[in-house]
Amino acid sequence: MSTHEDARLAYELAIGKRVSDAHWWRTRKLLTNHRLEITATNAQFLVALRKQIPKSAIGVSGLLDAYHRAESLTAKMGGTMTGAEVSNILLQFGITAHRTTISRWFKKAAGGYQKKRDYTPEEIKGILISAFLYKASQTGKLPQVS
Predict the structure, then answer these.
(1) 10, 35, 103, 129: least surrounded by Cβ within 10 Å?
(2) Torsion, Cα of 93, 99, 101, 106 (10° steps)
(3) Cα–Cα distance for residue pair 12/32, rounded to 1 Å
(4) Which of 24, 26, 17, 14 shows the shortest CA–CA distance to 50?
(5) How many domains does the chain have?
(6) Domain that holds residue 2
(7) 10 Å Cβ neighbour count for 32?
(8) Which helix (H) or strand (E) holds 128?
């Protein structure tokens, strides 16, 4: 079996059903466009990302963009951050959602918002992905990470 066949099998197992050749072709193209190798791990990652945010208004390409931006930002930050620091980062990117919406992002990614609680980089990444997707759905484009 070739690498592409292994990746397709892993993708189908993760998604829970067979996919057409056209669906798989679009999926491979999506992975390639985002500089991801066509491997079983990346195929499963894509399915997990789709399941994490199932009804995104900006599509899978936007999900991958938001994920890459959040990942690069958390890599720059290093360790843990408090809830207040994460809120300040959201404001720096011009993400001014209602506090109930922000609280929902924290609840989904980290179990809830507390101003002085330390959040891990993985929790922060989940919050930032939700925030970037919100921003993209509101303005039509993702905020730029410098």
Answers:
(1) 35
(2) 80
(3) 18
(4) 14
(5) 2
(6) 1-52
(7) 11
(8) helix 121-139
